Every structure is written in structure tokens, then in C-alpha cells.
């Protein structure tokens, strides 16, 4: 059992990290190849940081992810609050089924279906090219929304609804009661939903591929068009930088979590 | 009370409107395109044309089933071992499993291409040992490997989540009652981890059957999956009607498959876990 555990663990991690090691290794290649190493160099890092297109795509990706995650978080949290107060069982299950559609459906179907909607409406409006930043933003908000709703709903179920009622009895308006009582207790769910939405949007390629036009390129779209030809190591350099950034971020989050867990163990009443 | 009911309605109204326009209507439009021709009149020609893609559908189904099965086979024991480790080791391993997920799928797949291709890393290493180069890109194995690699964390995470909630005392109790390892697995661990397995299967199978990038890069242009056909119809041939018809069938295929899995799992109220 013990040996099986050890062997399997090492094998899986070797498998998971092999292509990432290749990526980091060849980002330092002096030559143009991503398979034959001809010497150590930082030149692709310099090339990447000075490449206007790459930096613009990076900026586009971040703006899109932030904007779509914020809008989805606001809409989704409002929706979760509204849904949790729904009386009609049929209505609630209709909404939840619809919410699950983008999560169940293959991305390619979601992407194609939204593209067809935009093309269809565009044809009505006689627009030449209906695909661009606006349609991409709509698509990202749409696939982000379920993550927010599904993260906030369970938190709402856990909060005591009598608390908000008590606040209203004491003279709060429903809106005040929401901000003063409900919101603080569902905050972890909102945050988790926002983070998931943000990362999903950062990483999305398939849905973006169908719903964006030629005038707005995100990083995954740029990588796709570059990998149609032979990739130069600058793409690997960029990915290595992102990899290190995520690694550092995750280690920090982990340390914070470990600290919080320890504190919870010391005074469990919190 | 009346006032707060009204507020709840106002709070969910934008979402309901949004979901109706951008989730439900697009699906109806897919159906509309699938049953019309480019001038907009009703036709069954698109659906009739699907017959020629029967092989492609079967190949996609076959590859994604193999990939899902192998992924499950290696993830299940791994997740179990992981869930029995100390809290620090678990946290560390969780981080290491999740980290590759945040790397772009395109880059990870391209990197595999560098490893497997004719002048790639494996063949260079083999060449140093004097071994003839192997052809790996363009084989079904390479495509399946790409699927397993990219979606492995999506199988490990949900299974690990349910496994870590299994109380060790439960296993001890089973042991005290005379259960051997096999019985513990069959009677305790397996039933309790079922929701995680189902989410894992869904999260590996659905993207595998609909992929087009993995088959493009690791299939070397020789292997066409259903995602490739949709991509070609929509992005190159601009035949939206045929693309919509194939998408429609793919969606139905996925829903049917998931219904089969859910039925096998028996009644499952919450529909599994996300993470």
C-alpha cells in the first residue's frame, strides 16, 4: 500500500509537470526552436516584454476578466438572494436548471450558440461585424454567472434568515438589512464566486474563440493564432512568467489559510 | 414582509432576464439554424448530412470514454492516498494538483507536441541511445494522452473533496466489524465517494468529447474529432447551419451520457459537487 502510494504520487506529479518543465526550460533557449536546445539566453523574455501585441493581449485579458467577474458577481449575488427567497418550487427548479446549462454543456456548444445569437441579431441590425469586445464581455459574464450563483446560494442557506427579519423589526429597510446582516455572512461565498469567475475568464479559450471578432484579442486567442504556425520560445517565456506569478500567489494564499486554520484550532469558538 | 418579497423579485429579475436571453434563446437559435438553410427556409438537409459524420461521432465518443476511464482509474487511488495524509501534505499536494490547471490549455498541449513530435524531446533522447525515432503525433494514443493530461485535475479534485470528508473512524469501525480492505473499499469508501466520481466523470468526459485543439495538435491533422468538424464548419466553411446541427447532436449526446451516469449513480439530490 505504502509503495503503491509513493509510486503513484511521483508518477502523477511527474506526468503533470513534465510539459511545464519543458515550457520553462525552452523559454531560456537561445535558438528559435521549442524542441532543440542551443544555449541559454534571456532574449525571449526581453522580446516578450517589448512585444506590443502580446502586452496588449495581456491587458485585454485582464480587463475582460476583471470586468466580467465584477458584473457577474453583482448580478449573481443579487440573483442568489432573490432565488433563495423564492416560494414556488417549480420556478426555482426552472431557474436552477437554466443556471446549470452553461456548466453542463460543452464549451464549444455554448460558444457556437452565443455566436449564432450575435450573428442572428447582427443580421437584423444590418451590422457588418457584430463580434467584438461587447459580445465577448456578454459571453464571459454568461459563463461566469453560474459560478457566482452556485457559490453564494449554499452560504445563504446556512445563514439564519430570522437575523435579517430581526434587523427589519428593529427598523432596518430590507436593503439595509441585506447590507448589514446578510452580506457579511455570505461574503466568503461571494469572494469564492468572484475568484472562480475571474480565473475562468482569464483562462477561457473555446467560448472566446467563437464570440470575439478580429478587433479584440485576448491572450488565449493570441496563443491560438500563434500555435497555428510554429511557436517561438517567447510564448513559453510569457507562460513561464504567468506560471511563476500563479505559483507565488497560491503559496501566499496557502500560507494565509494555514495560519487561519491554526488560529481556529487554538480558539475554536471563533 | 410584502416589501421584502418585492425586493427579492427585483433582485433576481436581471439574472432571469439575462439567463433567458443569453442561455435559453441561443439554444433555440441553434435549433433554428439546424433546421433551416442559409436563406432561412425549413430543411432537414443538415440533419441528413450528419450521417457522413457517424464515424467521427463514434471516434470522439470512443476516445473520450477511454480517456475518462483511465483518468478515473489513476485518480481514484491517488485521491484516496492524498486524503489520508497529514494536513500540511494535503495542502501542498492540492496546490500541486491545481497549479497546472491555471496554465493555459493551449500552451500545455503545445508543450506535449514538443515532447512527442518527430524531432521532439523523446525522440531526441532515444536518438542519443541510438534508437530509431517513434511516430507518436497523429496516433490515437497521443490524442487520448492529451485528454488525460489536460483534464486529470478535474477528476482528482472532486474525488479528493468527497474522500477527505470520509471520517477515518468510519473505516476503523468497519475494520472492527471484521471488514477486510476489499470490503472497506466496496461497502464504505466506494458508496461515500460516488458523488465525487460522478462530478469527475462529467468534468473529464464533456470537455474530452468536444475538444478540437487537442486533436488538432496531437492528432497531427490526421485525427478528426467532432469538435474539429464543428470548428471547421463555423470558422472556415462558414456553414452555420451544418455547424448548428452538429452542435445540437453533440449537446444531446452529452446530456444522454450524463443521464446514463446519473442513473447508474442512483438518486443524487444535489447533483454532485463542483469543487
DSSP E strands of chain B, number: 0
Q: Can you identify the CATH superfamily of chain A?
A: MetI-like
Are there runs of chain B of 5+ residues with pLDDT below 50, and where?
267-275
Beta content of chain B comes to under 5%
| Uncertain stretches of 5 or more adjacent residues of chain A | none
| Rg over CA atoms of chain A | 23 Å
The helix content of chain A is over 70%
Question: Could you state the CATH homologous superfamily of chain B?
Answer: MetI-like
Q: Any idea of the CATH topology of chain B?
A: MetI-like fold
Structure classification of chain A: mainly alpha
- Domain count of chain A, please report it: 1
CATH topology of chain A: MetI-like fold
- How many strands, what sense, and barrel or not for the largest sheet of chain A? none
Using the coordinates above, name the CATH class of chain A. Mainly Alpha
Query: What does the overall shape of chain A look like?
Result: globular
Arithmetic mean pLDDT of chain A: 88
- Helix-residue proportion of chain B: over 70%
Largest sheet of chain B: none
Q: Give the terminus-to-terminus CA distance of chain A.
A: 39 Å
List the helices and strands and how they pair.
The complex is a heterodimer of chains A (270) and B (275).
Chain A: H1 2-27, H2 43-50, H3 52-84, H4 89-104, H5 107-124, H6 133-158, H7 161-169, H8 174-203, H9 206-211, H10 219-227, H11 233-266
Helix pairs in contact in A: 1-11, 2-11, 3-6, 3-8, 4-6, 6-8, 7-8
Chain B: H1 2-34, H2 45-49, H3 54-83, H4 87-98, H5 105-116, H6 121-128, H7 140-163, H8 168-176, H9 181-209, H10 213-218, H11 226-236, H12 240-265
Helix pairs in contact in B: 1-12, 3-7, 3-9, 7-9, 8-9, 9-12, 11-12
What labels describe this entry?
heterodimer, A: 270 residues, MetI-like fold, 80% helix, B: 275 residues, mainly alpha, globular
Written description of the protein model:
- The complex is a heterodimer of chains A (270) and B (275).
- Chain A is mainly alpha-helical and 270 residues long.
- Chain A has a single domain, classed as MetI-like (MetI-like fold).
- In chain A, 80% of the residues lie in helices and 0% in strands.
- In chain A, helix 3 (52-84) runs parallel beside helix 6 and helix 4 (89-104) packs across helix 6.
- The two termini of chain A are 39 Å apart.
- The mean pLDDT of chain A is 88.
- Chain B has 275 residues and is mainly α.
- Chain B has one domain: MetI-like fold (Orthogonal Bundle), CATH 1.10.3720.
- Helices cover 75% and strands 0% of the residues of chain B.
- Chain B is built from 12 helices and no strands.
- The radius of gyration of chain B is 23 Å and the shape is globular.
- The model of chain B is unreliable at 267-275 (pLDDT under 50).
Amino acid at each position: 500500500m505504502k509503495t503503491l502510494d509513493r509510486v503513484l504520487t511521483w508518477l502523477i506529479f511527474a506526468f503533470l509537470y513534465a510539459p511545464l518543465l519543458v515550457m520553462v526550460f525552452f523559454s531560456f533557449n537561445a535558438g528559435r526552436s521549442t524542441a532543440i536546445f542551443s544555449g541559454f539566453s534571456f532574449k525571449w523574455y526581453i522580446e516578450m516584454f517589448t512585444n506590443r501585441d502580446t502586452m496588449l493581449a495581456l491587458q485585454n485579458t485582464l480587463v475582460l476578466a476583471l470586468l466580467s467577474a465584477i458584473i457577474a458577481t453583482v448580478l449573481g449575488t443579487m440573483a442568489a438572494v432573490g432565488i433563495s427567497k423564492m416560494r414556488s418550487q417549480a420556478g426555482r427548479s426552472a431557474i436552477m436548471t437554466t443556471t446549470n446549462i452553461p456548466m453542463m454543456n460543452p464549451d464549444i456548444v455554448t460558444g457556437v450558440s452565443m455566436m449564432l445569437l450575435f450573428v442572428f441579431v447582427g443580421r437584423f441590425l444590418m451590422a457588418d461585424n457584430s463580434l467584438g469586445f461587447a459580445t465577448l464581455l456578454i459571453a464571459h459574464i454568461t459563463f461566469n454567472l453560474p459560478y457566482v450563483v452556485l457559490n453564494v446560494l449554499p452560504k445563504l442557506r446556512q445563514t439564519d434568515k430570522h437575523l435579517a427579519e430581526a434587523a427589519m423589526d428593529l427598523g432596518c429597510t430590507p436593503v439595509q438589512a441585506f447590507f448589514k446582516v446578510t452580506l457579511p455572512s455570505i461574503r466568503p461565498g461571494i469572494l469564492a464566486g468572484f475568484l472562480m469567475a475571474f480565473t475562468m475568464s482569464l483562462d477561457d479559450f473555446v467560448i472566446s474563440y467563437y464570440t470575439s471578432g478580429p478587433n479584440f484579442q485576448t491572450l488565449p486567442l493570441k496563443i491560438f493564432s500563434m500555435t497555428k504556425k510554429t511557436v517561438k520560445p517567447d510564448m513559453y517565456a510569457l507562460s513561464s512568467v504567468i506560471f511563476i506569478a500563479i505559483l507565488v500567489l497560491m503559496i501566499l494564499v496557502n500560507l494565509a489559510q494555514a495560519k487561519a486554520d491554526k488560529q481556529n484550532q487554538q480558539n475554536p469558538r471563533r | 414582509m410584502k416589501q421584502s418579497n418585492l425586493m427579492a423579485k427585483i433582485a433576481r429579475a436581471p439574472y432571469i432576464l439575462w439567463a433567458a436571453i443569453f442561455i435559453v434563446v441561443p439554444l433555440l437559435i441553434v435549433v433554428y439554424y439546424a433546421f433551416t438553410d442559409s436563406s432561412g427556409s425549413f430543411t432537414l438537409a443538415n440533419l441528413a448530412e450528419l450521417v457522413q459524420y457517424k464515424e467521427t461521432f463514434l471516434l470522439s465518443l470512443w476516445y473520450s470514454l477511454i480517456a475518462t476511464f483511465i483518468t478515473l482509474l489513476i485518480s481514484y487511488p491517488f485521491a484516496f492516498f492524498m486524503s489520508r495524509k497529514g494536513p500540511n501534505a494535503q495542502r501542498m499536494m492540492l496546490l500541486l494538483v491545481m497549479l497546472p490547471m491555471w496554465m493555459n490549455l493551449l500552451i500545455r498541449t503545445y508543450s506535449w507536441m514538443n515532447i512527442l513530435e518527430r524531432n521532439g524531446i523523446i525522440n531526441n533522447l532515444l536518438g542519443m541511445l541510438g534508437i530509431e525515432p517513434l511516430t507518436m503525433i497523429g496516433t490515437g494514443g497521443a490524442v487520448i494522452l492529451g485528454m488525460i493530461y489536460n483534464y486529470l485535475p478535474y477528476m482528482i479534485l472532486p474525488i479528493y473533496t468527497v474522500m477527505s470528508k470520509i471520517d477515518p473512524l468510519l473505516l476503523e469501525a468497519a475494520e472492527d466489524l471484521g471488514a477486510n480492505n476489499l470490503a472497506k473499499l466496496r461497502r464504505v469508501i466506494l458508496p461515500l465517494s460516488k458523488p465525487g466520481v460522478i462530478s469527475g466523470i462529467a468534468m473529464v468526459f464533456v470537455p474530452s468529447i468536444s475538444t478540437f485543439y487537442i486533436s488538432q495538435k496531437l492528432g497531427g491533422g490526421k485525427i478528426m474529432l467532432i469538435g474539429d468538424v464543428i470548428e471547421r464548419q463555423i470558422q472556415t466553411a462558414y456553414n452555420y447551419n451544418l455547424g448548428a446541427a452538429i452542435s445540437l447532436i453533440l449537446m444531446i449526446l452529452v446530456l444522454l451520457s450524463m443521464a446514463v451516469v446519473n442513473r447508474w449513480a442512483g438518486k443524487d439530490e444535489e447533483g454532485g459537487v463542483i469543487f
